[in-house]
């Protein structure tokens, strides 16, 4: 049996949807904090296991009879690493054979500016040290984040970011989830690492040009300095910690951390992943 954590989130649901096309439903379980929020899964035959990353006992119980756990990375910035360790410890105690983890595809761990990204590598280290088989999915930045980065007024005022000419190998979250499920559905053993990126890397200049083409409205990308970005975000009412987190993402992009591509996503999907044009058309409903 495969247990998918974060099962009511976008990525977890994408994985489960694809698993249901590959495996009998009785081989799939979903870890949820609130059974009511996952009520749509039960009629499909998916077993619901209630628990959360902060409850070791509940995690161990949820993993009873499970062979593989997909640990979808948590969003609690302060506790995420400890929560991930709780899941790995519970898996080991419950006799789980394999832990899979959804981390990030980044070029150089030692040169990251964004401290939040370090927990992905630290989680990978912990899984490897556990003695369990590890399947590590290093996901590119979701193309789904572009509307957030571009801002609500992108078609009116353009895109203004401190990312320079940095490029990102964006991939759709749904396609990454599909690829993850395809790996989990196949039996295998030992440590494996997959880098799930888009077919090429694009700059925000490419994003602006593509949005212009799709919408028929001129959208311009303007690289700005960090201080100007900070002032811009504060003027919009964004709290200082959030501004700094956003800025760290952009600095890593400018430094080339997100630019590397592989063909692994295409191989696992059995088709070419969505291009920037295809993705933006769907995300912006153009």
From TrEMBL:
<dbReference type="InterPro" id="IPR052718">
    <property type="entry name" value="NmrA-type_oxidoreductase"/>
</dbReference>
<feature type="domain" description="NmrA-like">
    <location>
        <begin position="2"/>
        <end position="251"/>
    </location>
</feature>
<dbReference type="InterPro" id="IPR036291">
    <property type="entry name" value="NAD(P)-bd_dom_sf"/>
</dbReference>
<protein>
    <submittedName>
        <fullName>NAD(P)H dehydrogenase (Quinone)</fullName>
    </submittedName>
</protein>
<dbReference type="InterPro" id="IPR008030">
    <property type="entry name" value="NmrA-like"/>
</dbReference>
<dbReference type="Pfam" id="PF05368">
    <property type="entry name" value="NmrA"/>
</dbReference>
